[in-house]
Every structure is written in C-alpha cells, then in structure tokens.
Amino acid sequence: MESNALLWFRKGLRIHDNPALDHARRGATRRLFPVFVLDPRYLEPDPTAFSPGSARCGINRIQFLLESLADLDGSLRRLGSRLLVLRGGDPADVLIRVLKEWKIGKLCYEADTEPYGQARDNRVREFASASGIEIFSPVSHTLFDPADVIQKNGGKPPLTYQSFVKLVGQPPSPIAQRVTSLPPVGDVGEYEILGVPTLQELGYGDIGQVEFSPFRGGESEALKRLKESLTSKEWVANFEKPKGDPSAFIKPATTVLSPYLKFGCLSSRYFYQSIQEIYKNAKRHTSPPVSLVGQLLWREFFYTVAFGTPNFDQMRENKICKQIPWSNDEKLLASWREGQTGFPWIDAIMVQLQKWGWMHHLARHSVACFLTRGDLFIHWEKGRDVFERLLIDSDWAINNGNWLWLSCSSFFYQYHRIYSPTKFGKKYDPTGKFIRHFLPVLKDMPKEYIYEPWTAPLSVQKKANCIIGKDYPRPIVSHDTASKECKKKMGEAYAFNNLLGDANWKRLREKSEKDKLDPGRRPRLKQKRLG
DNA sequence: GTGCAGGTTGTGCGG
DNA sequence: ACCGCACAACCTGCA
C-alpha cells in the first residue's frame, strides 16, 4: 500500500550518501515531505549574549546553517522536491504534529548520538511507534556506530586512540548511486511553510560591523572544498597534522572540512573513501594518528567515548574526568573570551574565533591550555561553552573531548607540557602577520615586540600608535609565575585523584557527604598513588 | 604486583 | 630547516 514518507533533516544536510533520504524515496512512497524544524534552543536571538547570536549559537554558525539549508533546498528542488522549513517551538512537538496531520506512514532520519538529540528523537520515536509509523534511523553521521564499537570492546568505550583504531576495521562504503529524482511533496494543509529564512527573518537584524566567517555553508560548498583539498595527491599522502602551521589564515594548513562534517554537508564515509583512493595510488602515505584518515578516526574516537560515557560534558559525575579544583574568576574568563589577555597570540586567536568561527587545531590548543592548566586555571567547561557557541564546526563530542584532553582532565596527562603564549606562535609566524590581521591595534608594532608588546619601550609604543595599558592591555598574568603555579596545582589535584582511586572514590564521596566535606575541593595531600 | 613502552601537536638547546 | 636530546614526569596498556 502506498504511503507518505517524512524525511527529517537535522544534521546530514546533504543529498550524497544519505541513507535516510535513500530509504525515504524508495518503496511505496507516494508523497515525500523533506522537513527541517528550526530549533529555538539554538536559534532564538539572545540580546544579552556576549556577541551576536543566540544563547548557544554565535551568528557565524547560524549563518552557516542557513546557507546549508538553502543549498539543500536548491538540490531538493532540482530533484522535484523542496525543503519544508518549519518553526513553532520544540522540534519534537512540531514533528509529532505534522506526523499526524500529514498522515505519515514512514519516518526517516539519521541517528544522532548526542544526549540532546537522543532525548528529542526518543520522544518522536515513541509517538511514531505507538502510531504504527515505520521508522528508519540509520547511522550515517559517523563512519562507525559508536554502540557497535563499545560492544566490541566488551561494553566499555576504548579510552585510547590506539586501542580504538585496533578495534575498528574498515568503515562501510558510501552509497554509490546518485539520486536523480524524488517523489513529489504532499499537501501541507494548514501548516505554515517557510522558505529558508535569512538572519534578519530570524530576528538578527541589528548586527553591527562584524567580520564574518569566510567559510560558506552547504553541501555544494563542501564537495567543492573536498575536491580542492584533494587536488594535490602529494599533500593528501603526506599530511601530518602536528606539522601544520596554526598561524596560516589566508590559506589554512588544514582542509577546513570540519564544519561540513559537523552539519553533515559532507559524508565522512565519502571523505574517507576519497582519501583511500588517493592512498591506493600513492607510493607511501602517512598513517593515523597524524594522517588525514587519522583525523577522521579522531572524530570517531571522540564520538564513541562521548556516547559511552555518562556526563561526558562535565567534570562532576564523569568517571573518566580528573577532579580538579579549577578557579572561578569571571574577570579573567571575560578577558580570555574577549581577546583582552594582553598576550597578542592568545588574543588574536580569540578574535579569529569571534570573527571567523574557526581556528587551526593548534591555535585552539594554545588558548585552551592558557585558560585552563597553563595560566588561568579556569574550568574547562567555561572554555568549552565559549567554543561550543562560537565555532562553526562545534561538535558536542569532539569539543568536549578536546577540552578534556587539553585541560589534562582525561586522555592526555602530561600537564607539565605547557604551550607558551608568546613562544609557540613565534615559531610559526616570527613577524606576527596573524596577530596584525586579527588585532589591527598592533599592526604597526615592530616584530621584535609583537608577541610581547609590554616590553616595547614607550617611544616604540608611541611610534606604533599603541600604548600598552591604554590601547592594548597589559598581560593579565605573568606566564612564568602562573604556569609554575598551575603545574603545582595540577600535581596536587592528580595526587588527590590517585589517592581516591577507583574503588575508593564512591565510598569516600559518600562518607564526605555525611561529614559535610567536599573531596573535590583543594587537595591537602601531596602523595603518590596509594594502591 | 611490577616494570616498561608509548603517547597526534612543550620548550630549550645543540648539532 | 630539521633532527635528537634533556628536562621532569604524567597516564594507560600490556607483558
């Protein structure tokens, strides 16, 4: 019997290698309703936020999403369909309403492993099951199904990259067949259907002078960018992530495909296959973890651990996270967030984040280390929130995973290795081109002082039209003192965590609750592991 | 239980 | 430009 199908887009904003779309168009589908629901959780303007955008989403990522939707709509129209953009509150509520109203018999959507997505999808799934609607919900955002990997590993997520790589084999191939036409859209009845809105239509009319992200959203752009990135076979075969230049911004040192993977404008399986084809014809090529394929596997690794770890996005109640007594200094946090730390390398990166919504991986490391275990000793969750909001590629699993990593809270523990906020950038960009671009106030500072402008004689500052303390801030901390202090605190925190040990952890906590003591507070004992 | 190797991406120095 | 090593020393995985 013929029925109506609904294809629910959330991520996976693409036509190529889209199993949900493939399934929706097949079989006895009479009418196909391709739907995207605007989620107020991410899109409701928040005028009190520290920069243009909503509470959870900066303007650049909203724009990226809208461009991706417009591109998707265009592609669907070429296939005889269109994108039905809906609004009206919580996406699960909206979806349940249209499932009823449009007499949907088959619901297709890509599986989502994030907690927010799971809660949302469970509500819809429950309704659909109870209503006898067929559900097809394939895993196609990632190469592997995190649940499968965890099962393979005996029920626990692998906690090192190497063990993860050993565990997984080859990912499934992307769908080879091209979609050439789609069933027509059905009658939407009374329902209000929007075209893909503009920023203005979403209520972001009064954005001041902002330098916008140079990266445009959408599947077409993703495939174009992929093609360009893979043009040089030699570049692909020799790619080594740690050797990239974090200060390169005219032509970034990486592919910048992360935002397209985040929204699913690009299929990770297609990306993987494209790289493999180049490897096949190359004499030699680099390997994980540093290779290009290795980067895709890092994504998988974090998706898997994030899926299998309760409270992955917080320190408390997170089994794999070191309990560290981070400080809570709102003023220092604000300086970091606004690019006002007085360290040009740090501030330029934070400005790039605000303006572009993208920075090189190692630039992210620099500022994350500085905020947490390197200098300010501020909670990684605070930095995570800022990145999550402003990055165009912000991805729940990967962002949290990297903050855990950088703050030495999990995965990585060599807390004495601290990025210098002055010397690290200088290695790559001795004349300070990156700083001059993103911090124009320093554009005439001589290169001898560009990384430490507070050391410039006043005459030099005057000549450069930049008085330190007036036009550009003095450093908010002394890196030498602050980093030494941080190392000491990390050592104490580690000792305390080891003291608690896995088995003792729960018991001690219960006990401390009775005693009204908090073991998460400043540790007193400086001791080695006590078994 | 113990010891050892390895860990995408620190810095500073010498070659 | 690129390597190796010392520095001081963390954790996890495995034998």
From TrEMBL:
In terms of SUPFAM superfamilies, this protein maps to: Cryptochrome/photolyase FAD-binding domain, Cryptochrome/photolyase, N-terminal domain
Q: Which residues does the annotation say bind FAD?
A: 254-258, 295-302, 393-395
Cofactor(s) needed for function: FAD
UniProt keyword annotation of Protein biosynthesis present: no
Which GO MF term does the entry hold, naming one? deoxyribodipyrimidine photo-lyase activity
Known InterPro entries for this protein?
A: Crypto/Photolyase_FAD-like_sf (IPR036134), Crypto/Photolyase_N_sf (IPR036155), Cryptochr/Photolyase_FAD-bd (IPR005101), Cryptochrome/DNA_photolyase_1 (IPR002081), DNA_photolyase_N (IPR006050), Rossmann-like_a/b/a_fold (IPR014729)
Mind listing the GO biological process terms from this record? circadian regulation of gene expression; entrainment of circadian clock by photoperiod; nucleobase-containing compound metabolic process
Per UniProt, the cofactor note for this protein states:
Binds 1 FAD per subunit.
Compositional bias, Basic and acidic residues, is annotated for 510-521
Q: Is Flavoprotein one of the keywords UniProt gives this record?
A: yes
Instruction: List the keywords (alphabetical).
Output: FAD, Flavoprotein
Q: Name all Photolyase/cryptochrome alpha/beta domain ranges.
A: 3-143
GO CC, alphabetical:
cytoplasm; nucleus
Q: Where is this region: Disordered?
A: 510-531
Give residue numbers for the site Electron transfer via tryptophanyl radical.
326, 380, 403
Biased composition, class Basic residues, residue ranges:
522-531
Which Pfam families does the record match to this protein? Answer: DNA_photolyase (PF00875), FAD_binding_7 (PF03441)
The Swiss-Prot or TrEMBL record describes its family as follows: Belongs to the DNA photolyase class-1 family.
Q: Which PANTHER family match?
A: CRYPTOCHROME, CRYPTOCHROME CIRCADIAN CLOCK 5 ISOFORM X1
Q: What is this protein called?
A: Photolyase/cryptochrome alpha/beta domain-containing protein
Origin species: Colocasia esculenta
